[in-house]
Amino acid sequence: xxxxxxxxxxxxxxxxxxxxxxxxxxxxxxxxxxxxxxxxxxxxxxxxxxxxxxxxxxxxxxxxxxxxxxxxxxxxxxxxxxxxxxxxxxxxxxxxxxxxxxxxxxxxxxxxxxxxxxxxxxxxxxxxxxxxxxxxxxxxxxxxxxxxxxxxxxxxxxxxxxxxxxxxxxxxxxxxxxxxxxxxxxxxxxxxxxxxxxxxxxxxxxxxxxxxxxxxxxxxxxxxxxxxxxxxxxxxxxxxxxxxxxxxxxxxxxxxxxxxxxxxxxxxxxxxxxxxxxxxxxxxxxxxxxxxxxxxxxxxxxxxxxxxxxxxxxxxxxxxxxxxxxxxxxxxxxxxxxxxxxxxxxx
Length: 347
Fold this sequence. Notes:
Keywords: Aminoacyl-tRNA synthetase, ATP-binding, Cytoplasm, Ligase, Magnesium, Metal-binding, Nucleotide-binding, Protein biosynthesis
Mean pLDDT: 87
Number of domains: 2
Binding site for Mg(2+): 261
Number of helices: 11
CATH class of the largest domain: Alpha Beta
Catalytic activity: tRNA(Phe) + L-phenylalanine + ATP = L-phenylalanyl-tRNA(Phe) + AMP + diphosphate + H(+)
Distance between the termini: 84 Å
Strand content: 15-25%
Family: Belongs to the class-II aminoacyl-tRNA synthetase family. Phe-tRNA synthetase alpha subunit type 1 subfamily.
Organism: Johnsonella ignava ATCC 51276
Shape: elongated
């Protein structure tokens, strides 16, 4: 037994000496890793010796196993020490090689820029703030009563169908428009009111080139004494010429909205062909951009506004539609796909 133990001990000493000599000659981390695999890996020298333990007697096996394990630990530590030494040496060499020239100009950082939606909104906001309007925000999760009831939209109206509106429960919805903000402001009873209410809105629409379940609106409201449809037309004419150019013409077509009466759609003359007719305006010479009208008396009643003293007008536009028209984008999905090649055009 002692002879076999002595033989194994001599073999392990020889293996350890050989391993240390080879490890000392290593000058790269990948070569050192190959060395670790050769001695300590699943098919390495130490593993091969461990497999011979099955042929040893029960009396010899524990002592032989201890010898082999001690050798494995020593080789493992030697490799680890060499790895630390190589790493420090390589870092020192790298730092010497990559000496920084502080006289060189710094690299310019990649700076983000505004999204086309943001650019369009800032232009709209600047126009209306310049006309004395204030910007008012409101909740995106809204009561059904504010989203529909106070805006003269009855219980059986198609807009309240679950195919068109995201209901959280029977009383709470994801707002389908920013008009509820106007109702909340009117309820405060602080007149006159000149406001725009921008923000995200939600409708149960399938995604395509012109629709999305989440988009943005900018709606406006004016309430004061003696407000007429002429004030509405003059305000929106000013807005259109500021946004699209001084030569733009506008026209109003009769329409129906539950919260305004009378109601209208406003078109602007095509700013590509100046009303002559082209592909952009579908040969009509006109482009629809928003809906508007005088605030319905029922809305005043529901918001506790004295309709005998005050009159008002309201309007609303899709922010994405304005961005698509202004920058001649033919697919709304491009605004949300985060394609850097598209977005970089708006630097």
